[in-house]
Structure formats: structure tokens, C-alpha cells
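Researcher: Please predict.
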Amino acid sequence: MEIPCPIQEMEVEVEREEEGKEYEEGKEYEEGKEYEEGKEYEEGKEYEEGKEHKEGKEHEVEHEEKLAHYYLFEAMSKSSVPPGDAAGGPPRRTARVSNCQHPGLLLKSQATRRTPAQKLANDKKAADARTAKADATRQGVERIADIENMMEASQVAASVPVKPVRPRPKVIKKAAVNGKVTSNA
């Protein structure tokens, strides 16, 4: 989507006037020819109520007058209700630096001050959140302490000197040889 730029349109019109092309009245602007009420348009000659024609200056004045008229019309045509506040209207936008620039969205305005009741409610909510966080932290610390105590107890139990096992002789029965039972006993 292309945003129309009134300044560029006016500059194009001024360039057309300078080039000598046909205009709305169907007349061609060239130096030395007569137009409108028998006046001759040449450099240095007087016309239009005693004004002297200077090449380029007249176009600048016309351009500035057109711009002034455009901005005045634009300012007067704006409504007193911002467009973002109207029901279903487009969002409010920032003022443009130039007419050809895409408008940016306005930042959200600051919130209004809180009432004393809102402040108390927010303070109570913050205090409740702090106590809940402290309780959760305390429970976590207690759980870690219990785990550490269990680990310490198991390490102490593992490090207690244990009475060594005394080796005992084991009776081994030998196979019977010719009906005789032999044993070490």
C-alpha cells in the first residue's frame, strides 16, 4: 500500500509547468506567447497586478501557498476525538516526521495512580507471595537437611569397626574307600 504524498504531487505539477506541457485549459506555456486577457508572458515583463515575473520564484511561492493551504485544510478537517478512542476506529498513531513516512504506533500511556485500597491489596498480595516463597524455601532446606542427616548416619554406620571374622576349620568328608569311611576327625 502506497501512501500518497501531497508534496511530491505538487512538485510534479511545478515540474510540468516548467517543462511547457499542456494543462487544464488546453494552452501550452511557452515564452513569448499570449495567454489570458492578452497578457504576454516573458521574463522581466509585468503582469498579474504589477508583479514582476522571475523564473523559479513564482513557482516557489505557488508551491508554498499550496502547502500552506493543504496543511490548513488538513488541520481543520481533523476531528476533536482521537481516532483510537472512537469505537472501532484505527489505533492512534504518532505524528509523522515527513508526509511520506509511515506512521508508527503510539506507545501506551502511563497508568493512573492507584487508590489506597488498591495499594493495600497490592501490598497484601506481595506480602503473601513473600511468605509463600519463604515457606517453600524453608521446606526445601528442611528436606535437604533430612537427606544430609540420613547420609551422615549411613556413613557413620559404615565406618564403625566390625569384629573380624575368625576362620574356622571345615570338616571335609572323604569318599569311602573299600567300605571304610575316612575322616579328618
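Model: The two ends are 113 Å apart (CA to CA).
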